[in-house]
Design brief:
With 298 residues, this protein is α/β, with parallel strands linked by helices. It has 11 helices and 10 strands. It has a single domain, classed as Aldolase class I (TIM Barrel), CATH 3.20.20.70. The strands form 2 sheets. The chain has an 8-stranded parallel beta sheet.
Length: 298
């Protein structure tokens, strides 16, 4: 029997309203959107914290904590934030691993998060439209020292690493590094696709099958989901459900200028999942599934 399908919503991302006008930015907007998406069926909430003065991403514990507390006081969901998007306009200067994971470290010690972003690789983020206009993208940088630091936190606190797999090499490196940290929970492999940004694979069955063949070789049985940036997953949602995977949608992942809001994207994904024969998982069921893979504490 297949596990119920996890449905995650990524509420905003690093884009700012100049590129994605409908994203929630203020703390109250993020909390309200999260709760509405939870009501619509999402059991996992991911968001980026924004500075209310500048309207740009700022990854501080003091911004994250009250938002997560507000969401979790009203809904049983798995809630997690992100890291400074190294190499972007919001984090143009090099950061140490400790600086980059500072908010994560404080949030897990406060008992507010169960997962953390630990992206196992670096890649160029360049929109096709920007390339055509002569505008450079940026290098999303995740040095190995940063990946190791994230896995060390996972090992120490038993939080689940959330791997974004932008390229096949991310999967191979992520699996190899995870093996170097015995006791760290099994990562969630978030397979990233795009139609509008020049990384990885487009959202196609053959691409999903290639990733799954590699995942079976590197970390068989690990949980995985389809997601992306600048992507409309379309038929990849039922394909994921049929193969036993999970789904992420939301305005972080949608093509720029998306006219729908997060709730509509969750509702659309729910319909596709249920039409494919899937049943949505609760947060408790997600935790139960992850508990099966959790190593015993020494």
């Amino acid at each position: 029997m297949k596990d119920p399908t996890w449905l995650e919503v990524a509420l905003n991302g690093p884009w700012s309203r100049s590129r994605q006008p409908n994203i929630p930015v203020r703390a109250s907007e993020i909390a309200e959107a999260a709760l509405a998406c939870a009501d619509a069926g999402a059991s996992i909430i991911h968001f980026h914290a924004y500075d209310p003065a500048s309207g740009r991403q700022r990854d501080d514990y003091e911004i994250y904590a009250p938002i997560i507390e507000r969401i979790r006081s009203r809904a049983d969901v798995i809630c997690y934030g992100t890291l400074p998007f190294a190499g972007s306009i919001d984090a143009p200067n090099p950061l140490t691993p400790q600086q980059r994971f500072s908010a994560v470290d404080q949030l897990v010690r406060a008992g507010l998060i169960e997962w953390s972003v630990v992206d196992p690789g670096s890649t160029n983020i360049s929109h096709y439209s920007d390339i055509a206009a002569g505008k450079e993208g940026f290098v999303y940088a995740n040095p190995e020292a940063h990946i190791r630091h994230g896995l060390s936190l996972a090992q120490q606190h038993h939080i689940t690493p959330s791997y974004a797999i932008y390229e096949p090499g991310f999967l191979r490196l992520g699996a190899a590094l995870h093996r170097a940290y015995p006791g760290a929970p099994v990562p969630i492999y978030r397979l990233m696709f795009s139609q509008h940004i020049a990384f990885g694979f487009p959202p196609a069955d053959w691409a999903l099958d290639a990733y799954l063949k590699l995942l079976e070789q590197e970390q068989p049985g690990a949980p995985w989901m389809v997601a992306g940036l600048g992507v409309e997953l379309g038929e990849l949602v039922p394909a994921a459900v049929e193969r036993g995977g999970h789904v992420r949608v939301g305005l972080e992942d949608a093509p720029m200028g998306c006219t729908q809001d997060n709730v509509a994207l969750v509702q659309q994904a729910r319909r596709r999942i249920e039409q494919a024969g899937g049943k949505l998982a609760s947060a408790a069921q997600v935790r139960e599934r992850l508990q099966r893979d959790l190593p015993a504490r020494s």
